[in-house]
Write a structure and sequence with these properties.
This protein is of the alpha+beta class and 234 residues long. The chain folds into three domains: 66 residues, no CATH class; 109 residues, Ribonuclease H-like superfamily/Ribonuclease H (Nucleotidyltransferase, domain 5), CATH 3.30.420.10; 55 residues, no CATH class. It contains eight helices and eleven strands. A five-stranded mixed beta sheet has the order 3-2-1-4-5. It has a two-stranded antiparallel ribbon with strand order 6-7. A two-stranded antiparallel ribbon has the order 8-11. Strand 4, helix 7 and strand 5 form a beta-alpha-beta unit. The longest helix has 17 residues. It is elongated.
Length: 234
């Protein structure tokens, strides 16, 4: 049984589409792995079958014009393919230019063997970082589909910080591991605040350590681990 046929059998379990559309989606997915680009003209060259490349290209164009799928359907399908009872989630932002149009998305992914598989995303009609409301909106959508018990841990970079955000996560019983900026204030053992970099500035490059006891970060008492990267960043 080839990869496309195997994928068709799996997709039929989740998508209530006509078989021809499911086969088209399976062909697209397999082609993407082969050519590693989302350019549909290139994808058409890797589609299976004896039809001309131009025919494959027109078929793909029709698929994306006619087929409308709910984000929740895609999310449940991706999560179902992964072998986990609970999921490690990663929140990040991706930004690129499409001609003169700025495409800015906040993306929530499921992590598998070091690879982030997008399951939900939010278009940001602006440049720059997402705000707390937008991050909460994405997590709320995941909880609506899967339940909070599906979340093992949330990972995020330095833009995923803030007092309201740090209060929201424990309120929803979500464990998290989020990077903070080196100038973000942490509490010392005596309660006095100091920039995070002060606690780790004597560390040799390439090493890390955990602070003793939870520290006050963005209004929450959290466990903090820090290190110095080869680039010199914390």
């Amino acid at each position: 049984m080839d990869h496309t046929t195997m994928l068709v059998n799996l997709l039929k379990l989740h998508f209530g589409w006509h078989l021809a559309r499911i086969k088209c989606l399976a062909s697209i997915i397999v082609a993407l792995f082969k050519i590693k680009t989302v350019n549909l003209t290139e994808v058409a060259t890797a589609c299976p079958g004896t039809a001309e490349i131009e025919s494959h290209d027109k078929r793909l164009q029709r698929f994306f014009k006619q087929v409308e799928s709910k984000p929740s359907l895609i999310a449940t399908c991706v999560v179902a393919f992964l072998p986990y009872e609970t999921s490690t989630l990663s929140m990040d932002r991706t930004n690129w230019m499409l001609g003169c149009f700025n495409s800015n998305f906040l993306v929530l992914s499921v992590v598998h063997e070091g690879i982030a598989f997008p399951v939900l995303w939010l278009f940001l009609p602006k440049k720059g970082n997402a705000n707390t409301k937008e991050r909460m909106q994405l997590i709320d959508k995941f909880i609506e589909i899967f339940g909070v018990e599906k979340i093992d841990c949330l990972l995020g970079d330095r833009e995923c910080i803030g007092e309201t955000w740090f209060a929201y996560l424990p309120t929803h019983r979500i464990k998290f591991c989020l990077r903070i900026k080196s100038d973000r204030n942490l509490s010392r053992t005596n309660g006095i605040l100091a920039p995070a970099s002060h606690f780790f500035r004597r560390l040799p490059v390439g090493t890390s350590c955990a602070l003793v006891g939870p520290r006050l970060v963005c209004g929450q008492r959290l466990w903090v681990t820090g290190g110095r990267l080869p680039s010199g960043e914390y």
